[in-house]
Design a protein that fits this description.
Elements (H helix, E strand, L loop, with lengths): L5 H4 L4 H4 L53 E7 L13 E7 L1 H4 L5 E6 L3 E6 L4 E6 L11 E8 L6 E6 L3 E6 L4 E5 L16 E6 L9 E6 L3 E6 L4 E5 L13 E3 L5 E3 L2 E6 L1 H5 L4 E6 L3 E6 L4 E5 L15 E6 L8 E8 L3 E8 L2 E8 L8 E6 L8 E6 L3 E6 L4 E5 L14 E2 L2 E2 L2 E2 L8 E6 L3 E6 L18 E3 L8 E3 H12 L15 H10 L17 E6 L2 E10 L5 E6 L7 E4 L15 E3 L1
Antiparallel strand pairs: 1-2, 1-32, 3-4, 4-5, 5-6, 7-8, 8-9, 9-10, 11-12, 12-13, 13-16, 14-15, 17-18, 18-19, 19-20, 21-22, 22-23, 23-24, 25-26, 26-27, 27-30, 28-29, 31-32, 33-34, 35-36, 35-39, 36-37, 37-38
Length: 598
């Protein structure tokens, strides 16, 4: 039974219910280590309850030869050839054995997931990665890889990885930081200053070059580092005040256009220095930062929407850190912190009881939980892992059971679609499909999730028993509505994992021939038929911005030829005047100003 009775807790000792270190073998073989990053991511954001700053300094322990490596199950969008999720045509609706990783028998120290990429740090200090590499977030020249490949070989003995949306950070045993991937907002911290993407891992210099860093965290377009002296350094996008440097970087340029200056090299967050606060741990969301101090207090900064900063009815952005003062009972003891893309969590001991607190946006279509609120059904659980992703959260317990909540497509095939809310209290649901598996770790990116199970304490076959009603589903993506059998999608995924990295992509299961032909024609980049006359108010369109399509709606016609005021359907973007030339109404991928009617 997943949720144990609170009465049992009265017989338990504090050590029975305190958060335990998530390991990657069938036995506990290492001391607590630094928690994995994010949000991805991802941003993407994923982390497990490991102690903040010990992995960079704690000695390595040998892995007993009798211990079997954990086995990885993966689900969500795994069409890693595609840069953006909407283009995905291979979606694993149910947890599936990731044989490409499992067959390697790696002794894994830590896992970090971004939007569509994952990094794995092995106990021998080597780093492996898989997924999409469009921006160089894997530190490779390959466009993608379904099979884990070595990364940053020869750069050092690595102890931690952290994944942002499209960039990555690595930390060496000596406390040095390496970065690679997208650098549009200066989130790589490379000197001399450059906003070019980097597919080669490069040392981060500036103020942290000669410091000993003990923890790293990557946000959506931001990066953070914690030094052994308890100081926090930040760089990347200053928008929303996510760096906590006292500014959102916004300034007025000519013609009334607002632009944002970025921080392209690490700077110390002076607020903590001025208030004499020594930081113990950091966690990063897509646009916010959460901090745990040495004296077990919480601080946060960045984007305030949906209550992710835990400031009650105050949903304004915070450009400098502010305390979270929701608790008043002296016996509360904050243990760990986590950030999802738009939400935050912490674990805390109150007496002998372990509580999980949640605040922010629990799902993609929900209002925010504005103040930290206890997840009552997890009260007193021995939590061995927490992963916070994009609109989704997953936990696992000492008993090897896993639960999940969120309003994310990752839930759809698990029989638990949507966030179960009652009076704005999230309700985790047991991942029953894995009830015969002992889940020991969970990790979440933007559109994919992973669970690591202990085979020695699991029963049943590797392949899960999928409900009959779930064996047929849409193959994924908005363009293809063809039905595909569950077994066909799994077979396609496993086949891709056996191919060399960057191999030519395969068609989607059950993809109709006409659709493939239409796709081939479009890929040639021919100019689409130009719209007739001026665009009308209310016209729906999408425009290309450096690395992503952004949908918008025409609000009005502006002065000047082909100029319109467009309201963008993206959080935090304000309406702006843009020039929509008919010649740019094209599907030509080489045109940086392309736009299309929707």
């Amino acid at each position: 039974i997943f949720f144990r009775f609170v009465s049992f807790l009265m017989e338990a000792t504090p050590s029975d219910i305190a958060p335990t270190t998530t390991t990657v073998t069938a036995e506990t073989i290492e001391t607590p280590s630094a928690a994995p990053s994010d949000d991805a991511s991802a941003a993407p954001c994923t982390s497990t309850p490991k102690t903040a700053a010990t992995s960079a300094t704690s000695p390595e322990e040998p892995v007993p030869s009798s211990v079997k490596p954990l086995r990885c199950y993966i689900w969500g969008s795994v069409d890693w050839e595609q840069y953006w999720d909407r283009e995905s045509k291979v979606t694993l609706q149910f947890p599936t054995p990731f044989t490409a990783l499992n067959d390697m028998n790696l002794s894994i120290k830590q896992v970090a997931a971004g939007a569509k990429h994952t990094l794995i740090v092995a106990n021998d200090g080597k780093v492996w990665g898989f997924g999409n590499n469009a921006k160089g977030q894997l530190g490779l020249e390959l466009p993608w890889t379904f099979t884990p490949v070595p990364i940053a070989a020869g750069k050092g003995h690595f102890v931690q990885a952290s994944c942002g949306t499209w960039h990555s950070l690595l930390l060496t045993q000596e406390g040095k930081v390496w970065s690679f991937g997208s650098n549009v907002f200066g989130q790589l911290g490379h000197t001399p200053k450059t906003k070019l993407d980097s597919k080669s891992p490069t040392r981060v210099g500036g103020e942290i070059e000669f410091l000993k860093i003990v923890q790293i965290a990557a946000g959506g377009e931001t990066s953070y580092a914690l030094s052994d002296e308890g100081h926090v350094y930040a760089w990347g996008s200053v928008q929303y005040g996510a760096l906590g440097t006292g500014t959102n970087g916004q300034r007025l340029e000519k013609a009334g256009k607002m632009i944002f200056d970025d921080e392209e090299k690490p700077v110390k967050i002076q607020w903590f220095v001025e208030h004499k606060i020594r930081v113990k741990k950091i966690a990063a969301g897509t646009r916010h930062l959460l901090v745990l101090s040495d004296d077990k207090k919480l601080y946060t900064c960045g984007h305030g929407a949906y209550g992710r900063l835990g400031q009650g009815n105050d949903a304004h952005d915070k450009v400098s850190p502010v305390p979270i003062t929701w608790y008043t009972r002296k016996e509360i003891d904050i243990q760990d912190i986590f950030c999802g893309s738009e939400h935050s969590l912490c674990t805390a001991l109150m007496g002998q009881h372990l509580f999980v607190y949640f605040w922010g946006r629990p799902g993609n279509d929900n209002d925010g939980v504005m103040t930290p609120t206890s997840v009552d059904s997890l009260c007193g659980q021995g939590i061995s892992g927490i992963s916070a992703g994009k609109g989704i959260t997953m936990v696992c317990t000492d008993a090897g059971e896993a639960a999940i909540w969120g309003e994310n497509s990752l839930c759809s095939g698990l029989g638990i679609m949507g966030t179960q809310q009652k009076n704005k209290r999230v309700e985790p649901k047991v991942l029953e499909l894995m009830s015969d598996k002992h889940v020991q770790e969970v990790h979440s990116g933007f559109w994919h999730m992973m669970a690591f199970v202990d085979p020695a304490r699991s029963t049943g076959e590797d392949m899960l028993k999928v409900p009959q009603q779930g064996r047929e589903f849409k193959a994924g993506g908005l363009q293809f509505a063809a039905k595909a059998r569950w077994e066909d999608v799994v077979e396609l995924f496993q086949a891709r994992c056996k191919e060399p990295p960057g191999a030519a992509k395969h068609p989607s299961p059950a993809e109709p021939p006409a659709a493939k032909k239409a796709k081939t024609t479009a890929a040639k980049g021919s100019v689409a038929k130009n719209p007739k006359g001026p665009l009308k108010v209310g016209t729906k369109l999408k425009a290309w911005f450096e690395d992503v399509w952004v949908p918008g709606t025409v609000q009005s016609k502006s002065r000047g030829k082909n100029k319109y005021m467009v309201a963008w359907d993206r959080e935090g973007w304000k309406p702006e005047e843009v020039e929509l030339n008919p010649d740019d109404h094209t599907v030509d991928a080489s045109n940086p100003d392309r736009w299309q009617l929707v």
